[in-house]
Design a protein that fits this description.
Elements lengths: L1 E5 L9 H16 L6 E5 L4 E3 L5 H6 L11
Parallel strand pairs: 1-2
Antiparallel strand pairs: 2-3
């Protein structure tokens, strides 16, 4: 899966909510045997790639603990 969304403000930096949602999507996909390859945030001036910043790999290689709360 590849997720893409926009930040019309012009700043493609991921918010804490973007990071939390990405983690939730990766963990949900994992439960059905699907990999999340990328999450990209686009804005009029720039983009942010979770993969290029090694954030997708950090999430997908970390098994959830029993105390993990997914909203």
């Amino acid at each position: 899966l590849i997720f893409v969304h926009n930040h019309p403000s012009g700043d493609a930096t991921p918010s804490e909510m973007d990071k939390l949602i990405t983690r939730s999507l990766v963990l949900a996909a994992r439960t059905v045997g699907v990999s999340v390859y990328e999450h990209i945030i686009v804005s009029p001036n720039e983009h942010f790639s979770f993969r290029e910043q090694s954030l997708i790999w950090a999430i997908s290689s970390t098994p959830p603990s029993k105390n993990t709360i997914l909203s």
